[in-house]
Amino acid sequence: MTFIVPPPRARRVDDAEAAAALLLEELSIRLMEEGSSAGGHPPPTSCSDHALRYFIRGFTTIVSLVMVAWLIYARYTTDDSELHDPAKLSFLIVLSLSLAAFGFCSTSETELQRLLD
Predict the structure, then answer these.
(1) Per residue in 83-111, pLDDT tens?
(2) In a 3-state reduction of DSSP, which class is residue 1?
(3) CA dihedral 7, 10, 15, 21 (to 10 degrees)
(4) DSSP character string of 37-91
(5) What is the mean pLDDT of the segment spanning 48-74?
(6) What is the DSSP letter of 110?
(7) Is the pLDDT confidence value at 44 over 90?
(8) Whole-number Å distance between alpha carbons of 98 and 4
(9) Could you give the CA distance from residue 54 to residue 5 in angstroms, rounded to a whole number?
(10) What span, in angstroms and rounded, lies between the C-alpha atoms of 21 and 30?
(11) Closest by Cα among 98, 106, 110 to 44
């Protein structure tokens, strides 16, 4: 059975460049032991990040649909001339639906996050 002995941590180094190289080597060994690399993947996101992302998506979608329902309701119950104009009403509906699109775009996941999950 072979044992791997780590290099001694208390090496005496006289040169500053050699000290920096030794520190970098020890850091890379430590990162290798921990299973991560210096230029590797970001740490996985926590459960609270996922929950916040889903809450924001759901909230913006519900608010957007409530706004559309209110616009349609207000068209048939009020005498507001802006709501009876089809072009203005369609613009207001598209504007209110853009809130849901903004909620999804602002909380989008990258391909790397999808692979890690």
Answers:
(1) 889 999 999 999 999 998 888 888 777 65
(2) coil
(3) 40
(4) -TTSPPPPPPHHHHHHHHHHHHHHHHHHHHHHHHHHHHHHH---HHHHSHHHHHH
(5) 90
(6) P
(7) no
(8) 60
(9) 47
(10) 14
(11) 110
